[in-house]
Amino acid sequence: MTTALSPAEVREAIQAHLLGWLPRPEAASRPELAEYARMLRDYPERGGKMLRGTLLVYTGLAYGAELPHLLPPAAALELFQNWALIHDDIEDASDERRGRPALHKLYGVPLALNAGDALHALQWALLVRAGVSREVLLEFARLVELTAQGQHLEMSWMAQGRFDLEEADYLEMVGQKAAYYTAVAPLRLGALVAGVEPPGAFEAGGMLLGTAFQIVDDALNLKGDPAKYGKEIGGDVWEGKRTLILLRFLRQAPPEERLRAERLLAMPRAQKPASEVAWLHRRLLETGAVEYALGVAEGMLERGLAALWPVLEGAPRQAWGLRTLELLRGLVRREG
Hints:
two-stranded antiparallel sheet; globular; Farnesyl Diphosphate Synthase; 1% strand; mainly alpha
């Protein structure tokens, strides 16, 4: 296997495998099912960075697997990402995804929810048809369950109007909701597809890097380039997300500003005054809360890379191991 396979080439291969697995509108037996096929293909065809699938492939290559065996689980991981995003956008009442209206904004909640369920089923069917091992299936089950647990924590805090949260609460939630499936699971799955028991460092280092990824994502939500970020800038404020940035601001804000922010965040999205959302957005940027969170992410990046360096540098295909480390670095140090 050549080491000349770039991330862009890997993304293209994953995308082709994923879209080849989905129904095609032109093959549908009736117009309603053609629309169904278009809905299933909508988020996948919007592209995305496919960071998780690419990380799985690079790790698998480092441990001796070949690309044809890695593409089905990588495509299944991206299918998970897509159906989870459909559900997440509904649960968060998000307006945009990858620079376009969220699926439920285009088709309504019932049809979008149904499309997400269908992609979930196709994820498992793809894995079974590819003949992956029991260990790979169990790893997928674990990443789905942990993501749901983390999502439950976040939604519960918002539904209960919780503002008494600490940094440790955020880190626990993000570890389950985002960090595991962003970094830990791709690393472990790459090794499992190669027939190797994943090193313990994959979980410890992956959790640090996956958490750092999410902290950076929270910062980009406030100060990112809309063309690169692909989601609504300031959406976390509209949705009332309990981010590390927000918790830092609330902890340091004068009492009157904290009360003003909490009143705003407790409102449903549709009732939030745009002027108040703009005020809180501005204050999060002005008070150093974003810089604090990015500093936390940078520290996690360095500790995560230090944990993973020995095992990936010592992988059977060292060149791919080193490329995997660079990909992990890029997860955190990115602009969108």
